[in-house]
Amino acid sequence: MSYRTVLNETSYFGPGAIAELSSEVKKRGLKKVMLVTDKDLIKFKVATRVMKVLDDASISYEVFDKIKANPTIQNVQDGVKACKKMKADCLIAVGGGSAIDTSKAIAVIMTNPEHADVRSLEGAVQTAKKCLPILAVSTTSGTAAEVTINYVITDEEKHRKFVCVDPHDIPVVAVIDPEMSASMPKGLCAATGMDALTHAIEGYITKGAWELTDMLHLKAIEIISRALRSSVAGDPQGRSEMALGQYVAGMGFSNVGLGIVHSMAHPLSALYDTPHGVACATILPTVLEYNAESTGEKYREIARAMGVQGVDDMTQEEYRRAAIDAVKQLSRDVEIPQKVSLVGVKEEDIPFLAESAMADACTGGNPKDPTVEDVIALYKSMM
Ligand SMILES: NC(=O)c1ccc[n+]([C@@H]2O[C@H](COP(=O)([O-])OP(=O)(O)OC[C@H]3O[C@@H](n4cnc5c(N)ncnc54)[C@H](O)[C@@H]3O)[C@@H](O)[C@H]2O)c1
Ligand SMILES: [Fe+2]
């Protein structure tokens, strides 16, 4: 049995780290950048900071600003067209998971045109060639898309979101510059932060977890539990810690997988356009209760990493309850909706949502094998 680990070639951390982009582009011999972002990030003067770095270094670039949250197949195909027209030889993604994921799909199709339909990239696909080089600058603190080998695309026709897993899509350079996420409004900060906590916890209890990823996930749980409240309150130190914590979670889960919190969250975004982090955060405590019996001692370590005192003296029932309660408390403190009905779920959609969740690439990693009836019951319990 061997374990595979795929990470960025180079990552930069800290305030002002975006300045490193120019030398990275130059030393890699890249000539034309496609800068992938959205209109709001230009309006709020977030993406413009990266443009200034490129302007100052006389690096040639063109902007593709048509990214939308929960990106679609059409967004990707429009991006591929734009990339060809620009004759870009690399992409700089500036944004959250949506901009980075769309960049991955574009960059993969540019070098593997047989996947131009996008749908054929679903699941664990071993594409023939590495994607065009991506330099990813995250502006949210949650998805860790800058370090993962995954991307998530919405199929509007089939009302589903699908996960693509491919080591060829990983950004060569990741830039985690907390000044780029400083402008996140409170709600986005809370939702993306809870997405990061979900990655850390699901990654820690997933079937493929092992010692190296356990180390990363426990550290991420510790950082996120310590920093998320102050980050949401706007404290720069909290924002900075969250930028790191979400990346550490990404180093782990990208290499071992997740579980059914993600499988159950994806259909909510596909059907109701629910922000990914909100969907994950709302579902997390309920699935933690469902999974508890299949996690051995792990909830004790989750509780410990979340700052719960006295976990060594607790019974199994007590430490499991303590871990779930700590997650619930954090979720309430950052004002996450506590029911899926509050994020748009309708009773009559539940069978479709459950079928969609069962077909999701994350389901196989869940510590407990769910049936479709289990998933229906879980959604219903959160109405
Ligand atoms: N690739 C992965 O491994 C992975 C993991 C988890 C989630 N995802 C995917 O990522 C997407 C969600 O990404 P996200 O949660 O980062 O949000 P996002 O990228 O969808 O961005 C949401 C909104 O926030 C705005 N925004 C982003 N940064 C901002 C800033 N600094 N200041 C002000 N506004 C800002 C954007 O303009 C956008 O309107 C989903 O599609 C999800 O499925 C991918
Ligand atoms: Fe996520």
Q: Mind explaining what this structure looks like?
A:
With 383 residues, this protein is α/β, with parallel strands linked by helices. The protein folds into two domains: 10-181, Rossmann fold (3-Layer(aba) Sandwich), CATH 3.40.50; 186-381, Dehydroquinate synthase-like - alpha domain (Dehydroquinate synthase-like, alpha domain, Up-down Bundle), CATH 1.20.1090. 50% of the residues lie in helices and 11% in strands. The chain has helices spanning 20-27, 39-43, 47-56, 73-86, 97-111, 178-181, 186-205, 211-232, 236-256, 260-272, 276-291, 298-305, 316-333, 350-358, 372-381, and strands at 10-13, 32-36, 60-64, 90-95, 123-124, 134-138, 150-155, 160-165, 173-176. Strands 1-9-6-4-2-3 form a six-stranded parallel β-sheet, sandwiched between helices. A hairpin with a 4-residue loop joins strand 7 (150-155) and strand 8 (160-165). Helix 7 (186-205) runs parallel beside helix 9. The radius of gyration is 20 Å and the shape is globular. The mean pLDDT is 97. Nicotinamide-adenine-dinucleotide (NAD) is lined by residues 38, 40-41, 44, 46, 69-70, 95-99, 101, 139-140, 142-143, 145, 148, 150-152, 181, 183-184, 188, 192, 195, 276-277.
Keywords, please?
383 residues, alpha/beta, Rossmann fold, Dehydroquinate synthase-like, alpha domain, 2 domains, six-stranded parallel beta sheet, three-stranded mixed beta sheet, 9 strands, 50% helix, binds nicotinamide-adenine-dinucleotide, binds fe (ii) ion
